[in-house]
Amino acid sequence: MSVLTAFRRDLKGLGKYYTLTQWLMRIFVFIYVFINYNKRIMYFDFTSEFFYVGIFYMTCSGLILLGGFSRISELTRLSAFFMSLVMIAHIAASVFLFRAIDAEFANRLLLLGILLYFVTVSKKNDFHWRNRHDRDAIDIEEIIGPKE
Question: Which one of 77, 105, 120, 144 is most buried, by most CB atoms within 10 A?
Answer without folding.
Answer: 77
